[in-house]
């Protein structure tokens, strides 16, 4: 079997970085796109990042359709499933997120099993670990913990990531291939954007830089650098110890207000907001905005992740949060997005 990797969601923020690292490592990458018309753009983006794209090929796949999945995984040694619906605002119908996330995971893993690949690496999330817990949680969340879907304030995204990952483990366990799956559970992903599409995660930094965030609520952000997350996916493909494991990623927490201050200091000409929004104002606004309502439980509540397994997998410490924040901002400016 060749060293070909099926990478779903190659056009995404994380998918592009994973493709970059895979191609640099000499793998043949079969990247999935919903629309093959985007193939040239993805190839150009990766070429500008300094990697040869001679080992890059594309296939059309849709999370909500059966067509093409079996053929896409055929002759692949590994499957990296990063594709999942992301939105800037929570949909009124939560199944718009949950349905494609779970169904896409089912299709990806079924195709991987049919192709008898060595390892599937699933992009899960901190959202599948650290939410809905009613009691204070001073210790870092571990890989043994799952988001409590019956808890208060669970939004559609957290539900979609939790159900999708749980379904992945069910499929692999039923097939007797528990150790052929590894899940990466990153916190908020920051780091350099590769093209003009900032992606959902980097939108936060973009909105701080362009001043479109009206003020700064007391919300802590657990974050991890996209380069570390991409490297963890690649390492988990081949590490014998990674099989059957979950890898939370995100040691550092920063208050949104402190992140804004760092950006103001380093980019003084940018209209980064300075107004601190009191908790009571956020709670009042939440009465009229469902997105704000789902964030109420996050006010002043930091969430740390036990990232020790991911650090051991990578063989080096995680990139510092401030460095990641600044790299995000610098790349957004370089791409002309702000």
UniProtKB/TrEMBL annotation:
Pfam families: Epimerase
SUPFAM superfamilies: NAD(P)-binding Rossmann-fold domains
Keywords attached to this entry: Oxidoreductase
Every NAD-dependent epimerase/dehydratase domain range: 5-245
Domain of life: Bacteria
InterPro entries: Epimerase_deHydtase, NAD(P)-bd_dom_sf, NAD(P)_dehydrat-like
Entry's Gene Ontology molecular function annotations: oxidoreductase activity, acting on the CH-OH group of donors, NAD or NADP as acceptor
PANTHER family the UniProt entry points to: NAD DEPENDENT EPIMERASE/DEHYDRATASE (PTHR10366), STEROL-4-ALPHA-CARBOXYLATE 3-DEHYDROGENASE, DECARBOXYLATING (PTHR10366:SF564)
Family, similarity comment: Belongs to the NAD(P)-dependent epimerase/dehydratase family. Dihydroflavonol-4-reductase subfamily.
Protein name: NAD-dependent epimerase/dehydratase domain-containing protein
Organism for this UniProt entry: Devosia epidermidihirudinis
Classification lineage: Bacteria, Pseudomonadati, Pseudomonadota, Alphaproteobacteria, Hyphomicrobiales
């Amino acid at each position: 079997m060749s060293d070909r990797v099926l990478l779903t969601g190659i056009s995404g923020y994380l998918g592009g970085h994973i493709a970059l690292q895979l191609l640099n490592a000499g793998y043949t990458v079969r990247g999935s796109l919903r629309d093959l018309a985007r193939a040239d753009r993805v190839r150009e983006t990766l070429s500008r990042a300094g990697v040869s794209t001679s080992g890059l090929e594309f296939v059309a796949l849709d999370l909500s359709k059966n067509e093409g999945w079996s053929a896409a995984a055929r002759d692949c040694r590994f499957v990296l499933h990063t594709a999942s619906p992301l939105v800037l605002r929570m949909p009124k119908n939560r199944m718009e997120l949950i349905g494609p996330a779970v169904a896409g995971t089912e299709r990806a893993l079924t195709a991987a099993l049919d192709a008898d690949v060595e390892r599937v690496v699933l992009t899960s999330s901190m959202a599948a670990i650290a939410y809905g817990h009613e009691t204070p949680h001073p210790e870092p969340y571990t890989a043994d913990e799952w988001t409590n879907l019956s808890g208060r304030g669970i939004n559609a995204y957290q539900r979609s990531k939790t159900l999708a990952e749980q379904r992945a483990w069910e499929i692999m366990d039923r097939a007797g291939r528990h150790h052929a799956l590894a899940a990466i559970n990153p916190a908020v992903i920051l780091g350099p954007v590769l093209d003009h599409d900032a992606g959902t995660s980097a939108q936060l930094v973009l909105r701080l830089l362009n001043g479109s965030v009206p003020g700064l609520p007391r919300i802590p952000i657990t974050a991890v650098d996209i380069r570390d997350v991409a490297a963890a996916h690649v390492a988990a493909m081949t590490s014998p110890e990674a099989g059957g494991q979950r890898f939370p990623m995100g040691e550092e927490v920063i208050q949104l207000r402190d992140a804004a201050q760092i950006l103001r200091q380093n980019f003084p000409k940018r209209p980064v907001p300075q107004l601190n929004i009191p908790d009571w104002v956020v709670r009042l606004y939440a009465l009229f905005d469902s997105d704000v309502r789902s964030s109420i439980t996050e006010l002043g509540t930091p969430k740390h992740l036990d990232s020790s397994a991911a650090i051991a997998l990578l063989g080096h410490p995680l990139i510092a949060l401030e460095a990641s924040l600044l790299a995000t901002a610098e790349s957004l400016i370089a791409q002309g997005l702000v």
